[in-house]
Amino acid sequence: MTAPDSDSAPQRTSVAVIGGGSIGVAFAIVFARAGHAVRLNEPDAARRQSIAQILQARLDDLSGYGLLDEPAGAILSRIAIVASLSDAVADAAYVQECAPEQLALKQTLFAELDRLAPAGAVLASASSAITASAFAADLPGRARMLVVHPGNPPFLIPVAEVVPAPFTSEAAIAFTQDLLTGAGLTPVLVRKEVEGFVFNRLQGALLREAYCLVRDGVVSVEDVDRIVRDGLGLRWSVIGPFETVDLNTQGGIASHAQKMGPAYQRMGAERGQNDPWTPDLVEKVAAQRRTLLPLDRWAERVAWRDRRLMSLVRHRKTELEA
Ligand SMILES: NC(=O)c1ccc[n+]([C@@H]2O[C@H](COP(=O)([O-])OP(=O)(O)OC[C@H]3O[C@@H](n4cnc5c(N)ncnc54)[C@H](O)[C@@H]3O)[C@@H](O)[C@H]2O)c1
Predict the structure, then answer these.
(1) Residue 154 Cβ contacting ligand 1 at under 6 Å
(2) Ligand 1: which atom is nearest the Cα of residue 125?
(3) Span 46-68, mean pLDDT?
(4) d(Cα 210, Cα 213) in Å, to the nearest integer?
(5) What domains appear along the chain, each with residue ranges and CATH number?
(6) Are 309 and 315 in contact, with CB atoms under 8 Å apart?
(7) Where is the 3-hydroxyacyl-CoA dehydrogenase NAD binding domain (predicted)?
(8) Does ligand 1 have an atom closer than 6 angstroms to the CB of 28?
(9) Could you tell me if the CB of 100 is within 6 A of ligand 1?
(10) Which of 33, 89, 237, 259 places its Cα 20 to 30 Å from the Cα of 265?
(11) Distances, alpha carbon 294 to alpha carbons 161, 229, 287, 305, in Å
């Protein structure tokens, strides 16, 4: 077994997944698909009984879409479903905790994992909003603990937020990033612990406004989903929100902020939010965008975005509307 002070995660390692709900089952697929031996721990007997069938169905679907490099059975054979926590983690190099989102439960579970898992194993939580500082600060092995928050399901949504606490070791972070990358995920390092991390804070900003708009009778629930599905979301599957406004405005994002900043500030103030896009902040954002895309390549990138959207729109026409 390779310890987290090694240079990078090994090709094949021993992974324990704790909690066999939606995320645990999906993570078991991610790691087994990458060739790792997975021990999936689920304490609830009825749930445990159903997991093999769920895994088989998901893997058959992935295979049907040509998304597996080998037969579903070969991947399934790498996953052992176990009732006991100590059996699950006995020889693990990496533990992915996927138990319910409750602080007290995660605190107890990480104390147990710290006691049961080999000293070199990295212990990660799939927590959606609870930070490692909240569940691990008092534990002796806290340097090997952090959050790895996936999109749902991680075997389809590659981004995974890696959220260390100030006490998490660099070695544990590097090992985790290597392991996730090797498993086909896209780890994004979150530089400060904030509740909800980045994924859910962005989602939360949109959802909070959506709730307000429905409450105030501006739009129906169905039409909010339509505007995101056929508008914002369609574009965001090709480029993110910063690049969107950068490419939507001649002169790039600085020009967008100048034209639209005051209107967005009024919209925020209506909701009690006072976070203006100050000149310093706009300069910081614009400088990062200009490093990623010099303005002399702006038109070329707009054409690229349109071609990516054409490909996506064609896919939606042939596949989704069939
Ligand atoms: N569902 C999502 O969209 C999503 C996305 C990203 C992260 N997460 C996070 O992943 C974690 C798991 O979420 P989920 O949606 O899979 O939950 P879930 O309720 O579907 O599954 C949790 C599983 O953990 C089991 N469990 C309960 N107590 C346990 C214990 N002490 N030890 C081990 N297993 C235990 C339960 O029996 C259940 O099968 C949560 O922290 C959640 O916030 C969820």
Answers:
(1) no
(2) 41
(3) 97
(4) 5
(5) 14-189 (3.40.50.720), 199-320 (1.10.1040.10)
(6) no
(7) 14-193
(8) no
(9) yes
(10) 237
(11) 28, 30, 10, 16
Nearest to 168 by CA among 187, 199, 192: 192
Beta carbon of 128 within 6 Å of any ligand 1 atom: yes
Nearest CA to ligand 1 atom 39: 21
Q: What separation in Å is there between the alpha carbon of 27 and the centre of ligand 1?
A: 11
* Interacting residues of 141 by C-beta distance below 8 A, sequence separation 6+: 114, 119, 123
> Which of helix, strand or coil describes residue 29?
helix
| Strand blocks (E) in the chain | 14-18, 37-41, 79-82, 94-97, 122-125, 145-150, 159-164, 186-189
The chain-wide mean pLDDT, for the chain, equals 95
Nearest atom of ligand 1 to the alpha carbon of 47: 39
Pocket lining: 99 vs ligand 1, CB cutoff 6 Å: yes
- The pLDDT value recorded for residue 319 is 80
Say yes or no: CB of residue 109 within 6 Å of ligand 1.
yes
3-state secondary structure of 148: strand
Does residue 127's CB lie within 6 angstroms of at least one atom of ligand 1?
Answer: yes
Q: Is the CB of 112 under 6 A from ligand 1?
A: no
Substitution candidate for ligand 1 out of 128, 162, 203 with most atoms within 8 A of CB: 128
* Banded model confidence at residue 322, pLDDT cuts 50, 70, 90: low
Distance CA 124, CA 141 (A): 12
Distances 47 to 20, 21, 58, 110, 249 between C-alpha atoms, Å: 8, 8, 16, 22, 51
Closest-CA residue to 98 (of 28, 51, 192, 157): 28
* Residue 79, Ramachandran bin (φ over 0: left; ψ between -120 and 50: alpha; else beta): beta
Q: Whose CA is nearest to atom 8 of ligand 1?
A: 128
